[in-house]
Specification:
400 residues; six-stranded parallel beta sheet; alpha/beta; three-stranded parallel beta sheet
Length: 400
């Protein structure tokens, strides 16, 4: 038997809210971890079994080693599908805020959640929750939010409705937030819950292997980087600190905007999948909000074999984005190497890689080059300048 950790008043309110709601949205914190995804999907599976319309929205990408989780493919990323996510949040009857205690923890999604007319429920285990939800189920003494989700479902009287898939998600959250039950896990009720989840048919050993023994190339490289360059040791405290800035977290991110021929696009997608780069490379397809993408980007790479005028290059330069392009066609006429951008020999991948790394390492120099590129493009390719140039051509033709 489990002790009744969650207050009965909260159980009663949650029951009424879930009964009356048709549309429910579950949100969790930025850079979601195992407990964030596990608790969200665990609750998602339960609410789906109650024939509710449920969506899980996360602020940004979550780790590749959690993508196997049942329901993960249906998670909506706010940074990729902002307009759609805002619509869901605005139309929701209930928003469940899982594994975070302050709106600042959901980053760019904060305003949309705060302004939504939906009733808001917090389920969390961190200290000092902020009062942005009407129902606050906050228990720092509990090892994970996933455990709280399990307790909530059981107190509502729906243990039998927990599916194997939901149990796998809840177990994953509990496991990851206790380091495989190596810390903050001495409460015997944790192991009672595990036994109940095992009764649903989960394979805890397989879940462990999927989470802790699965490494993509990107994950290995990141681990090597933080261990070698970002670890600060404090021997007097027998401790070490590892951290990444927001800039570093987004350092290695590539976006392909536009549509190429089917053969080329297929090759690119196969390469991404083969090298497990889905969390690093995004295929955006045709986009109309290209100006928005330019403002987000640090580098535009123009790899064309044949580039006529080079409109993409000019658009990027006008937005203040640094351009690295091939020494072919119109690109070479637009970029003065090392002054308004960077050039590399077409087809020389190693040189391109070196250029990109140099830009990332020499940020101040790169900003100056991007600024000069913008000034050059504005001076020569501004719409008013172009109009005047065309006017002069007509004058000459007409001999005015």
């Amino acid at each position: 038997m489990l002790s009744k950790v969650i207050a009965q008043a909260n159980i009663d309110h949650a029951e009424k809210w879930f009964e009356r709601a048709d549309k429910i949205v579950i949100v969790t914190h930025v850079s979601p971890d195992g407990d964030a995804i596990g608790s969200s999907l665990g609750l998602w599976h339960f609410l789906e079994s109650q024939e509710k319309t449920v969506n899980v929205i996360v602020p940004n990408a979550f780790p590749d080693f959690l993508r196997w989780m049942p329901g993960a493919k249906d998670i909506i990323r706010y940074d990729k599908y902002t307009e759609f996510a805002n619509k869901l949040l605005n139309e929701a009857d209930v928003i469940c805020c899982l594994d975070f205690n302050a709106l600042s923890r959901i980053d760019a999604m904060a305003d949309a959640v705060a302004q939504s007319p939906a009733r808001k429920m917090m389920i969390d285990h961190h200290l000092n929750p902020e009062a942005f939800c009407r129902i606050i189920i906050s228990h720092p003494e509990i090892s994970s939010t996933s455990e709280l989700v399990f307790r909530l479902i059981c107190r509502l009287g729906y243990f039998e409705d927990i599916t194997k898939e939901g149990a796998e998600c809840i177990y994953t959250g509990m496991m990851t937030d206790t380091g495989g039950f190596t810390y903050n896990s001495n409460d015997r009720e944790i192991y009672f819950i595990i036994s109940e989840l095992l009764s649903k048919g989960i394979d805890k050993d397989e879940i462990y292997r999927k989470v802790y023994n699965t490494y993509s190339e990107g994950r290995l490289r990141l681990m090597g980087y933080v261990l070698y360059d970002k670890m600060q040791v404090f021997p007097q405290f027998n401790s070490a600190l590892i951290w990444l800035t927001k800039e570093e977290q987004s350092k290695l991110r590539v976006q392909f905007a536009g549509v190429g021929n089917d053969k080329t696009m297929k090759k690119i997608k196969e390469f991404i999948k083969r090298h497990e780069l889905e969390n690093v490379v995004e295929m955006l397809g045709f986009r109309e909000d290209i100006d928005h993408l330019w403002k987000q980007a640090d580098i535009c790479v123009v790899c064309s074999r044949f580039e006529a005028f080079g409109r993409v290059t000019v658009e990027a330069m006008l937005s203040g984005c640094l351009v690295i392009g091939t020494d072919r066609g119109g690109t070479i006429e637009l970029i003065q190497d090392g002054v308004t951008g960077y050039l590399y020999p077409y087809g020389e991948v190693d040189i391109l890689k070196k250029k990109i790394l140099e830009v990332l390492e020499r940020k101040e120099e790169a900003r100056k080059v991007a600024k000069l590129g913008k000034e050059y493009a504005k001076k020569h390719f501004d719409s008013k300048v172009n109009a005047e140039n065309i006017k002069e051509v007509y004058k000459k033709i007409c001999k005015i």
